[in-house]
Design a protein that fits this description.
Helix content is about 30%, strand content about 20%. By secondary structure, the protein is α/β, with parallel strands linked by helices. It has an 8-stranded mixed beta sheet, with helices on both faces. Strand 3, helix 2 and strand 4 form a beta-alpha-beta unit. The longest helix is centred in the last third of the chain and has 19 residues. The protein is globular and about 55 Å long.
Length: about 325
């Protein structure tokens, strides 16, 4: 049964993102990543009056992770900051993919943005990707004074696997107690390795387009490797939600992650975490790729406004 009739008509191009019957394999990933990299389009940082700089942060295993740093050129001694984590099912993507979005966020919200180019699975399974993100968070805190960043106004977030890593990072930062996070900003985060497995197939109306059950299992298997499926790397496995940062979580009606996202938001709410859950009807995973669709434009407004609210408020010290 096709669910195309439930998809917003403006988003019908999403039905052709991947060829029908395509599967991911470890052997094809390098060429697929190369094609993605060749298709990247950079934003115009100069026109937005934003500087773009490549920096390197230290991860726990002595790896130095590449990050892209975006700073407004205007003078401000006390800015908020946003640690961005890109999507790609833990197996694809790069910090450069979100270049235009991060330039726009830095300019519109007058914030510093640091985007982490974390290591990808299966070459680098857990804990490497999460430790790279933690290294980015540490770098932001350690360079906050030079960047004019208020350490009490540092948010984290991302899309899909990036949202999953952001959720994992919030758990890890809470448990280690070294670096404060004021907010997590999650767009259809990839949270639960059980989704799509036998007995956990979920609603048949989700997961037809872009990111399927088969893709999901390949991504999780690549990311987990031989490790156990436990929190923080698998956020849905978390038992104690108290003490996590205030959360904005957006999901989509036809996204494979819809129900795990709703469940995660409910568990945050039950733990007393201030949480805003947004669900777009007629949308699927990655819908923002159709940039001229009304839902995509709505997303840009909602995402930016919610992040602005989170970073403009004065959180308790």
């Amino acid at each position: 049964m096709s669910t195309k009739h439930l998809l917003d008509p403006e988003l019908h191009p999403m039905t052709n993102v991947f060829p029908e019957g395509m599967t991911f394999t470890a052997e094809m990933l390098p060429s697929f990543r190369a094609m993605q990299a060749a298709a990247q389009v950079s934003g115009d940082a100069a026109a937005a009056k934003v500087s773009r700089e490549e920096v390197f942060a230290a991860a726990s295993d002595d790896h130095r992770v590449r990050c892209l740093l975006y700073c407004p050129e205007s003078v401000n001694a006390s800015r908020g900051a946003y640690l961005h984590i890109h999507g790609g099912g833990y197996i694809l993507g790069a910090a450069d993919d979100a270049d235009a979005m991060n330039i726009a966020l830095a300019a519109a919200l007058d914030i510093v943005v640091l985007s982490v180019d974390y290591r990808l699975a299966p070459e680098a399974p857990i804990p490497a990707p999460l430790e790279d993100c933690y290294g980015g968070l540490a770098w932001l805190h350690e360079h906050a004074e030079r960047l004019g960043v208020d350490r009490n106004r540092i948010a984290i977030g991302g899309e899909s696997a990036g949202g999953g890593l952001a959720a994992a990072l919030a758990i890890l930062a809470r448990d280690r107690g070294e670096y404060r996070i004021c907010h997590q900003h999650l767009t259809y985060p990839m949270l639960d390795n059980r989704t799509g497995t036998p007995g956990h197939e979920g609603d048949p109306l989700v997961g037809e387009f872009v990111w399927t059950r088969d893709f999901n299992q390949f991504g999780w298997q690549s990311y987990l490797g031989d490790a156990a499926a436990v929190a923080p790397q698998v956020p849905a496995r978390l038992e104690r939600f108290e003490g996590l940062p205030p959360t904005w979580l957006l999901t989509a009606a036809l996204d494979l992650f819809r129900d795990e996202n709703i469940d995660y938001a409910q568990r945050l709410l039950k733990a007393g975490v201030a949480t805003e859950l947004v669900l777009y009807p007629g949308a699927c995973h990655g819908f923002q790729m159709v940039t001229d669709a009304a839902l995509s434009k709505r997303y840009l407004r909602d995402h930016r406004a919610a992040l602005g609210r989170a970073l403009s408020a004065n959180p308790p010290h």
